[in-house]
Amino acid sequence: MIFWIFVFTIHPAWLYTIGSEDESSSSSIEDASGTGPGAGGGSRWQRREAVTVVDSLQDQQQQQQADQQHRSLPSFVDVLPPGPFFDLERSGNVTALVGRPAKLNCRVNKIGNRTVSWLRHRDTHLLTVGRYTYTSDQRFRALHTPGSEDWALTVDFAQVRDSGLYECQVSTTPPMRHYITLNVVEPYTEILGLPELYINRGSSINLTCVVHYTPEPPTYVIWKHNDKVISYDSERGGVSVETVKGPQTTTNLLVRRAMEHDTGNFSCHPSSASPASVIVHILNGEHPAAMQHGGHSAYEVSWLLLLVAVTFQTVLSISIPELMLTHENT
Ligand SMILES: *[C@@H]1O[C@H](CO)[C@@H](O)[C@H](O)[C@H]1NC(C)=O
Ligand SMILES: *[C@@H]1O[C@H](CO)[C@@H](O)[C@H](O)[C@H]1NC(C)=O
Ligand SMILES: *[C@@H]1O[C@H](CO)[C@@H](O)[C@H](O)[C@H]1NC(C)=O
Ligand SMILES: *[C@@H]1O[C@H](CO)[C@@H](O)[C@H](O)[C@H]1NC(C)=O
Prior knowledge:
By secondary structure, the chain is of the alpha+beta class.
């Protein structure tokens, strides 16, 4: 009993040190909330912290009283309903998009008079206690409706650096802890498979482009070949595109009967994410066809010419692009 009287006596003094500008007299709460990225300091912030600390200490005192009662009355503890406990189904890991709000929920059943706090594990930064926000990073907020079992932590404009482990702590003795992983992701685009593809002449080029983590499906996805938009109704023929929009948008480009001029850089450009590309080499027998960067298109080249070109290439050791240029100029 003497110990608890001591604790209650020391609290006003403690409050005073936290409320004052004296940074050196640190308590555990100040340690957790006064440091870390974005802890701006300043007098406004100091006041905000002081107010929340008062409230939290009152909570703690009530809690200590309650715990003290429980300890001194073991028979009473036995008849108490069990709890608190976490509802793990409603307190799961979170994947959020960069720049969007993220909401980490912690559902605690039978919480009684206990308080829920949120801590960032990386730097053991105390973010919220009950309905109060402790951090100076204005993007973090405690979200709780009185009477509800949900104690959420919201992050406005989530950043990749916010990713990591967060702790939902209930003020039992010892504290109950539940860890939630926040994963903040950026949209990205990929073409499945290797960054370079080798296709036999006459075979199909089949490319699949996947757009990950866009807030909404892209309004369009464009395919380009050597930086020129591929048009599906061109004379080239044999080109088809199939796009399936959704949480993960997939577009498939199929180019039938690949020819030497199909060699080059194929890229996929979604309206709302960065592009992705793949280099396609058309194998002409044993050797990959030379890379094409020229302006003329494959659609103008007839199969007969190609056959002639192949013959000339073998006999005279001149390259196909050179021959085609000669053909165009005459
Ligand atoms: C949450 O994420 C962590 C770390 O990635 C993992 O160990 C844990 O199993 C995940 N929990 C659930 C419920 O998926
Ligand atoms: C919460 O504390 C108050 C007094 O502060 C008490 O009257 C009430 O019974 C307590 N409730 C629970 C569920 O412990
Ligand atoms: C192209 O590739 C996709 C994904 O690998 C596959 O589902 C599809 O059937 C292929 N299309 C053709 C015509 O081979
Ligand atoms: C292929 O084209 C894309 C988009 O135009 C470009 O970003 C990429 O650098 C190109 N790749 C190569 C190897 O030239």
